[in-house]
Amino acid sequence: MRNLQRTSGGVVRRWRSRWGALFTVAVLLTVVLACGIRQDEFSCEDAVAHLQQCCPDFPGTNIQCVYNDNDGCGATYPDLDVDLSTCIRNEDCPTLRSSGVCTRAAAIDGGAATTGQGQGQGQGQGSAPPEITGVCP
Known about the structure:
Strand order of the largest sheet: 1-2
Oligomer: single chain
């Protein structure tokens, strides 16, 4: 009977832990959405985090993931757009290392892509700097 109680308690603790984690993710997602982070910023940050996990020499600080509209005087976009960020995120670590993505990403001298008024592509996306377009295999 005592073993049953321990097992039952462990199951309850694991159940509570999972729900606690899901609740935390839901709260963070709500805060992020309420604070107005753009999809391209979030995707860029996610790709940079993945590169930091996979690439031993990748600093992460060289890529800018911030959008700034600069009061209509040439918006600044994240260095990695949504498509490129998704591509990087979908690659496993050995592929990123063996295909040279880690080396190319570490060599990026980011400054966030900038476009003049009305020159963005698609849904407000800017053009990525030339050295970034070859990052994803």
